[in-house]
Write a structure and sequence with these properties.
Elements: H1 2-11, E1 17-20, H2 28-35, H3 41-61, E2 67-71, E3 85-89, E4 97-101, H4 109-126
Parallel strand pairs: 1-2
Antiparallel strand pairs: 3-4
């Protein structure tokens, strides 16, 4: 990321940058739908918590370089209602249909709107710093 930021700053020396944290995804059903037994919600969350700390530390360490902050979007995503779901049988022999996550990390419409709301709120609060 540092190389990308350096390249952008070279051609846009007056630009201000803000980083966003990464969201941790939905429940285990979404991970099972996307990755089977190869990846799970718990491992993903553990890695993303550490990664988000690195993003926040990088933004803070480079504040003088034109970075104006870090937008913690992972705090504002509803992990239950913001991801894609699909109607499936409750079990292999059931005629009852239930909704399950079918995408581990990509938002549905409401999740995308939540991200937009967080970006807008951050800009309103930090506009004078830009």
């Amino acid at each position: 990321y540092g190389q990308l930021a350096d390249a952008l700053k070279a051609v846009m020396p007056k630009a201000k940058f803000a980083l966003t944290t990464q969201t941790v995804g939905c429940g285990q059903d979404g991970f099972a739908a996307n990755y089977g037994a190869g990846w799970n919600e718990t491992q993903h969350r553990k890695i993303l918590v550490a990664f988000n700390r690195e993003i926040e530390a990088y933004a803070e360490a480079h504040r003088a370089d034109g970075f104006v902050g870090c937008i913690p979007i992972h705090h504002g995503i509803d992990p239950v209602n913001s991801y894609h779901t699909v109607s499936v049988s409750a079990n292999a022999r059931s005629e009852v249909k239930i909704r399950r996550f079918d995408n581990a990390v990509h938002f549905g419409t409401s999740g995308s709107r939540q991200v937009g709301d967080m970006l807008a709120a951050w800009l309103q609060c930090h506009w004078n710093e830009l």
